[in-house]
Write a structure and sequence with these properties.
Layout: E1 7-16, E2 19-23, E3 29-33, E4 46-53, E5 59-62, E6 73-82, E7 85-89, E8 96-99, E9 112-119, E10 126-129, E11 148-156, E12 160-165, E13 169-174, E14 187-195, E15 201-204, H1 215-226, E16 230-231, H2 239-246, H3 250-262, E17 266-269, E18 272-275
Parallel strand pairs: 13-15
Antiparallel strand pairs: 1-2, 1-4, 2-3, 4-5, 6-7, 6-9, 7-8, 9-10, 11-12, 11-14, 12-13, 14-15, 16-18, 17-18
Length: 282
């Protein structure tokens, strides 16, 4: 069976002037247009392709990688808004529609939104929705307390930020427990702090049992994580560069990196500071 909105591993059945026809074990066929055909490909080879409906509502395959798959959440930009809804850029020729009924707030061209992609059961078309709550389910949790999870920040609340947990559950990060820059659309790694009696998830960004650092060390540590594990600053850096990057004095910075070094969280090298291998492992 060929599944729309997902990657399918299919066999090359025949070669035509418009492209390759690919098939599944059930003998269903789909066209891979000529412009997406890999350079060396023969009858009987298998290809991994993404399948969806083209602008004429015909099933078609592509070797392009979409920014979102069916039954997943992602941040997409609205390229056009017209009488049908908002059309999102997901990296394919045909943009992904978010109908007006699926927009809690009317979308605007050029803005980015967290959306969920699904197959409309009535039209059999792939569409997206920004009404995310109905696609999140905490009734049968697949996570445990202390577990490392993937996060997508999808809304800001008076208490903090609502997050999509492992692409299926809803969680909350409390504002007073966040020690780095976070915004709607951020993708993060976090941990399940608490599973409440009502199945709600409290999420934190540090491993459970993580000992709170002194504020300057915490600020430097968060900036290191956000910058891929390295900063071009050290104890001999120009004070103004430290102030511009971290909004702290050189004296405070040196105290902070001293704490991180003693905690074996960083290495200090001639060109800057680096998270240790243990700290930089996903």
């Amino acid at each position: 069976m060929i599944e729309l909105g997902k990657y399918n591993t299919l066999t090359v059945l025949r070669d035509t002037r418009v492209g390759l026809f690919l098939g599944s074990a059930t003998e269903a066929e789909i066209l891979l247009p000529l412009k997406y055909v890999p350079g060396s490909c023969e009858i009987g080879d298998t290809l991994e392709v993404f399948c969806y409906l083209d602008s004429e509502e015909r099933p078609v395959a592509t070797t392009l990688k979409p920014a979102i798959l069916r039954d997943t959440f992602a941040v997409l930009k609205a390229l056009e808004v017209n009488q049908h809804g908002a059309f999102m850029d997901w990296g394919l020729e045909k943009n992904l529609l978010v109908p007006f009924r699926e927009q809690p707030v009317q979308m605007r061209e050029g803005e980015e939104y967290v959306v969920y992609c699904y197959l409309d059961p009535i039209t059999s078309r792939l569409v997206a929705s920004a009404r995310l709550d109905r696609f999140l389910d905490n009734t049968a949790l697949t996570v445990t307390e202390g577990q490392k999870v993937s996060l997508l920040v999808y809304k800001e609340t008076p208490l903090g930020y609502g997050v999509v947990v492992d692409n299926r559950h809803e969680g909350l990060m409390f504002r007073d427990q966040i020690h780095r820059e976070v915004a709607v659309g951020s993708t993060l790694t976090g941990y399940v702090k608490t599973i409440r009696s009502d199945q709600k998830l409290d999420i934190v960004l540090e491993p459970i049992g993580y000992r709170k650092l002194e504020p300057a060390a915490e600020r430097i540590y968060a900036e290191l994580q956000a910058s891929g594990g390295t900063l071009p600053l050290h104890d001999k850096s120009d004070p103004q560069k430290i102030q511009d990057r971290l909004q702290m004095s050189k004296k405070v910075f040196k105290k902070g990196i001293g704490i991180l070094y003693r905690e074996r969280k960083i290495e200090i090298r001639p060109d800057g500071i680096y998270l240790t291998e243990a700290e930089n492992t996903p």
